[in-house]
Design brief:
Low-confidence stretches: 31-37, 55-73
Mean pLDDT: 78
Helix content: 40-55%
Structural class: alpha+beta
Oligomer: single chain
Order of helices and strands: HEHEEEHEHEHEEH
Length: 223
């Protein structure tokens, strides 16, 4: 009887090891698949008289408007390619340019119902004006925003200087793809190679943002 119990115990341990190895193998496969995950997100400049995801329009009308926005205004198209989702390496293509970005970039995600986003916006605008010759600033919104919400954002930002508000041309959101929570506010700083240097969640002092900008510009000048 004792030998039978020991045999059953040995079998349980063996099966447990097999299941554990299978689980680890599946998890490793998922990680490898995620490392090589790749996608492209297309944005266009928002204007008050058009919005590719206005929920008052029919789906057919929206698709037609997307085509109208993309085709004649290629200089207003912004494409962001996710080259490495684990390390958050991006390639930013402005208009028809075939070159990757040659300057550091700061991505500022905003939506009308994000209080932190709206509070940070004036500081971002000041930094964008101050460092516009050295760094690319992009203000990106999500596909969930209605035309009325986008109008509110542009009305609030116009007092702080010239800017472009980029909206997704499809119902895909880069910030969701990167698994970030925009409801708290989200900013990403990239170097000239598209590698993430640092990101910020929630309210961030303007002085901290500027210090990181100066650091990355100093690093670029030494490189």
């Amino acid at each position: 009887m004792q030998k039978t119990v020991q045999t059953k115990g040995t079998i349980r341990i063996f099966l447990s090891i097999i299941f554990a190895l299978l689980f680890l193998s599946c998890e490793d496969k998922k990680i490898q698949e995620k490392i090589h995950q790749y996608d492209t997100f297309t944005y266009t400049i928002f204007t008050p008289d058009s919005h590719p995801h206005d929920d008052r329009q029919s789906q057919d009308s929206t698709k037609s408007q997307e085509r109208n926005l993309q085709t004649p205004h290629t200089n207003q198209i912004l494409k962001i390619e996710v080259l490495d989702i684990i390390n958050e390496k991006l390639n930013i293509i402005q208009g028809q340019s075939i070159f990757t970005q040659t300057k550091p970039s700061m991505l500022f995600f905003i939506q009308q119902d994000c209080r932190n986003c709206l509070m940070i916006a004036p500081h971002m605008m000041r930094l964008a004006q101050k460092y516009k010759e050295n760094i690319n600033f992009y203000i990106l919104t999500t596909s969930s925003q209605t035309k009325e919400q986008l109008d509110t954002i542009t009305d609030n930002l116009k007092y702080y200087g010239d800017f472009h508000l980029y909206v997704p041309t499809e119902s895909l959101d880069l910030v969701v793809f990167l698994d970030k929570d925009i409801s708290r506010g989200y900013i990403m700083l990239l170097d000239s190679n598209g590698d993430k240097v640092i990101d910020y969640i929630g309210l961030v002092p303007e002085e901290m943002l500027e210090l990181d900008i100066k650091n990355i510009l100093d690093t670029n000048s030494k490189g």
